[in-house]
């Protein structure tokens, strides 16, 4: 393939992770391709030139979007100018609020590939018209998404889920426990409160209050918080300061999969981490809460009975969900204790979900599809 220039756009840590792995695979197959765009450390490490770091783009809720609107508009103008200067294709990674509006402005002047589908089957299904008109090709992670888009005659490929290759601990369990001074004889709970500051400030206190109740009800337990690299340690320390004297608690940075590996049970914020926990086949509950105004704005748009992707894939609730008004520490703790009596059924259900995520090397398959697609498609569509 002749030298080409592709822009890739993501706006959140999970998208950056997948974008980075996709770019790595594209460059393995076609080293001469230039890739630039919007992302974070994973995309930069993969060899992309970064225009804008995602740290300044992460939002939670309508009012956060409004606050950052000037930044988004400026970034969109910048990307459109880059496209006018000569770009061969653009890959949009999740982040639908920004990316679908950008796709409209591009108006198929170049091939527009969408990697990680917006969850139109869950909410805001009217956006399907935008995708049909402005997106050249969809690459989806779930089989049911392929069936969904095919109903609308949209060009789509199911590649499987890249997390199958990614979710692996970096250390042996015994080495991890020793390094962080954790006991191998205690029940270990992992807390995964999200990757956005707004999420962590709301959800982590709920998790910690739940942990206080668990400490009263169970013997020999310890807690680890899987810290996001994107978030300052000070954010976590401010939240836990009133709990550290009452809990056997540690904050562990950049070791999410190792935290999952040593955990006997997990408290998980809704999002990508629910799938990561499922792949590790660890029993868990889903906890999510946002500001009341944001909840009242977004709840009427939801068209699926569950919020957790694990439950959506399973087709039924196999993981308890504690959302908004149901996210009460006492209620959560009671469910956790109940599951701990016999977690085997949940673990077997998680194994079934994992089997539905496809085979390994999803990012490599996606890279091949993209490169083949660009060979076939003219630059001006």
Question: Brief overview, please?
Answer:
The protein has 381 residues and is of the alpha/beta class. It has helices spanning 13-29, 41-45, 62-67, 69-86, 96-106, 128-134, 143-150, 163-166, 173-179, 197-217, 233-240, 256-262, 272-279, 292-298, 309-314, 329-341, 344-355, 362-376, and strands spanning 5-9, 34-39, 49-53, 89-93, 112-115, 137-140, 156-158, 187-192, 221-227, 249-253, 265-269, 284-288, 321-323. Helix 10 (197-217) packs across helix 16.
Characterise this structure.
With 381 residues, this protein is α/β, with parallel strands linked by helices. The protein has 2 domains: 5-160 and 359-376, Rossmann fold, CATH 3.40.50.2000; 173-355, Rossmann fold, CATH 3.40.50. Helices cover 47% and strands 17% of the residues. It is built from 18 helices and 13 strands. The strands form 2 sheets. It has a 7-stranded parallel β-sheet, with helices on both faces. Strands 10-9-8-11-12-13 form a 6-stranded parallel β-sheet, with helices on both faces. Strand 4 (89-93), helix 5 (96-106) and strand 5 form a beta-alpha-beta unit. Helix 4 runs parallel beside helix 5. The relative contact order is 0.13. The model has no long low-confidence stretch (mean pLDDT 91).
């Amino acid at each position: 393939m002749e030298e080409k220039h592709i822009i890739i756009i993501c706006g959140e840590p999970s998208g950056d992770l997948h974008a980075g792995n996709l770019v790595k695979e594209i460059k393995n197959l076609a080293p001469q391709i230039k890739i630039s765009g919007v992302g974070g450390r994973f995309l930069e490490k993969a060899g992309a030139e970064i225009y804008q770091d995602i740290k300044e783009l992460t939002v939670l809720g309508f009012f956060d979007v409004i606050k950052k609107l000037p930044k988004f508009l400026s970034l969109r103008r910048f990307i459109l100018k880059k496209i006018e200067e000569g770009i061969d294709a653009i890959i949009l990674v999740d982040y639908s609020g920004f990316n679908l509006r950008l796709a409209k402005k591009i108006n198929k002047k170049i091939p527009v590939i969408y990697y990680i589908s917006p969850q139109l089957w869950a909410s805001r299904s009217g956006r399907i018209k935008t995708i049909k008109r402005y997106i050249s090709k969809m690459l989806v992670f779930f089989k049911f998404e392929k069936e969904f888009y095919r109903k609308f005659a949209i060009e789509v490929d199911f590649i499987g889920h890249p997390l199958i290759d990614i979710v692996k601990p970096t250390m042996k369990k015994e080495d991890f426990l020793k390094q962080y001074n954790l006991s191998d004889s205690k029940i270990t709970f992992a807390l995964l409160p999200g990757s956005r500051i707004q999420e962590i400030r709301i959800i982590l206190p709920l998790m910690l209050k739940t942990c206080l109740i668990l400490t009263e009800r169970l013997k020999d337990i310890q807690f680890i918080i899987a810290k996001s690299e994107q978030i300052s340690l000070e954010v976590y320390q401010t939240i836990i300061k009133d709990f550290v004297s009452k809990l056997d608690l540690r904050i562990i940075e950049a070791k999410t999969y190792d935290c999952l590996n040593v955990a006997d049970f997990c408290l998980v914020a809704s999002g990508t981490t629910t799938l990561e926990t499922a792949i590790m086949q660890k029993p868990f509950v889903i906890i999510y809460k946002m500001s009341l105004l944001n909840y009242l704005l977004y709840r009427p748009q939801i068209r699926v009975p569950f919020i957790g992707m694990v439950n959506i894939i399973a087709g039924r609730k196999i993981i308890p969900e504690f959302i908004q008004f149901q996210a009460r520490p006492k209620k959560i703790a009671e469910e956790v204790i109940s599951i701990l009596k016999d977690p085997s059924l949940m673990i077997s259900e998680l194994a079934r979900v994992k089997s539905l995520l496809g085979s390994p090397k999803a990012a490599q398959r996606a890279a091949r599809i993209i490169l083949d697609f660009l060979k076939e498609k003219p630059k001006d569509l």
